Amino acid sequence: MVKIQKQDTTEQKILGAAKSVFLEKGMAGARMQDIADKAGINKALLHYYFKSKEKLFEMIFKEASALFFSKINGIIDADIPLFDKIENFCSAYIDMLLQNPYLPLSVLNEATKQPQRFKQKLWKNREQIFIKFAHEIASETQKRKIKSIDPAHLFMNMISMCIFPFIARPVWMISTGMDENEFRAFVEERKKTIPQFIIESLNK
Amino acid sequence: MVKIQKQDTTEQKILGAAKSVFLEKGMAGARMQDIADKAGINKALLHYYFKSKEKLFEMIFKEASALFFSKINGIIDADIPLFDKIENFCSAYIDMLLQNPYLPLSVLNEATKQPQRFKQKLWKNREQIFIKFAHEIASETQKRKIKSIDPAHLFMNMISMCIFPFIARPVWMISTGMDENEFRAFVEERKKTIPQFIIESLNK
DNA sequence: GTCTATACTCGGATAGAC
DNA sequence: GTCTATCCGAGTATAGAC
């Protein structure tokens, strides 16, 4: 008889704890003790499972950054009209960010502070996610369906408007006086307002 | 006779070195040794001038974040038409960011990782920079001069598009294959493309 | 596999000579 | 004011008992 899997193995607990601590504090700021505490074990056991802090970090980080970048591919690749694609992209991406609010800051941080490691160890086999998107823009522009625009700028605009609020959240909350719930509602709204804003700008 | 000021006092050198190291590595990642090296002195002297790492950091950070937020006020407060204001804002802000490319990531990081300290020590007397802007949008909307839009979303869109490229630079450069010069040219272009993009969207 | 105890290292901070 | 030498805490990593 197959044993019913109790899913919270020690390894699972460690990975979960490590993810939250690393994403929140970054590699330099994270403490093995915090990870151990959060996992309900001691430091020694961390090293038993994952040789070193560096190794543990890479494990977490690869998975996290894969999520950050790969979710997009399916949507960008889909064979649907451009405007629908923009709507789907913003909506799906913001949903993902709502579930992983610390992800972008963490990824961009490591890319900035340890560019070598990022490029070599953490940035393997990434798709050129916006190339197909760029072609699509160029084609629509040529067909005179939308106003002429540089695809790179449009793409940058779109991801900026989706991601930045999550990075700037604490400052935004302080300066607007929003609380957690209001902020959540605000970014929920953005699933609609961003595509609207973009499409208004592109429409002839 | 007034003594000619030789401007590179030790204190100046320390502050300059500390600024670049802190902005690049963040509080947790920065090393006093690196700051000392870059300033051409030794660690002991750092402590002679600025009691502790924490103190030095706060000094640098307050000044830096003041720059980050206060440059905006003058532009937002100016008594000129809305569209001109948007153009001026993007242009001036991107110029400032070109001169301080690490600033936003650093500020937003500390706000995220040490929210208490940020709110208490580093976020003193900040203006509610976007309140006047919001009123102006509301007024233009009522006068039916522009399409109706929530000022909070518009403001967030604008700062997102200006700031985010600087935060995402390393990832963007890797995934597009841009080099330093191309990236610089790209954000220079954005001084024009962002206002265009916004104004196209707002225009009736 | 999991723990306690401890070794080792790095880096912030201080003492004291000049 | 500036240096060398040193201290000491924090935090990663390991040894070894259970």
Write up what this structure looks like:
The structure is a homodimer of 204-residue chains. By secondary structure, chain A is mostly helical. Helices cover 77% and strands 0% of the residues of chain A. The first copy, chain A, contains eleven helices and no strands. Chain A folds into two domains: 7-51, Arc Repressor Mutant, subunit A (Orthogonal Bundle); 61-202, Tetracycline Repressor, domain 2, CATH 1.10.357.10. The mean pLDDT of chain A is 89. The first copy, chain A, is elongated. Chain A binds a DNA duplex (18 and 18 nucleotides) through residues 10, 31-33, 41-49, 51-53.
Draw up the topology in text.
2 copies of one chain form a homodimer.
Chain A: H1 10-29, H2 32-39, H3 43-49, H4 53-77, H5 82-99, H6 103-113, H7 115-122, H8 131-142, H9 151-167, H10 169-176, H11 180-202
The first copy, chain A, binds a DNA duplex (18 and 18 nucleotides) through residues 10, 31-33, 41-49, 51-53.
Please summarize what this structure is:
By secondary structure, chain A is mainly alpha-helical.
Q: Which key terms come to mind for this protein?
A:
homodimer; 204 residues; mainly alpha; Arc Repressor Mutant, subunit A; Tetracycline Repressor, domain 2; 2 domains; 11 helices; 0% strand; DNA-binding
State the largest interface. A-B, 54 and 54 residues
CATH A-level architecture of the largest domain in chain A: Orthogonal Bundle
How many angstroms does the end-to-end distance of chain A come to?
66 Å
Query: At the fourth CATH level, what is the homologous superfamily of the largest domain in chain A?
Result: Tetracycline Repressor, domain 2
Major pleated sheet of chain A: none
Average predicted confidence as pLDDT of chain A: 89
Helix-strand pattern of chain A, N to C?
Answer: HHHHHHHHHHH
The CATH top-level class label of the largest domain in chain A: Mainly Alpha
Q: What is the helix fraction of residues of chain A, given as a range?
A: over 70%
Radius of gyration of chain A: 20 Å
Low-confidence stretches of chain A: none
Shape of chain A: elongated
| Oligomer classification | homodimer
- Please work out how many helical segments of chain A DSSP would assign: 11
Total beta-strand segments of chain A: 0
Q: How much beta of chain A, percentage-wise?
A: under 5%
CATH fold field value of the largest domain in chain A: Tetracycline Repressor, domain 2
Structural class of chain A: mainly alpha
**How many structural domains does the protein architecture of chain A include?**
2
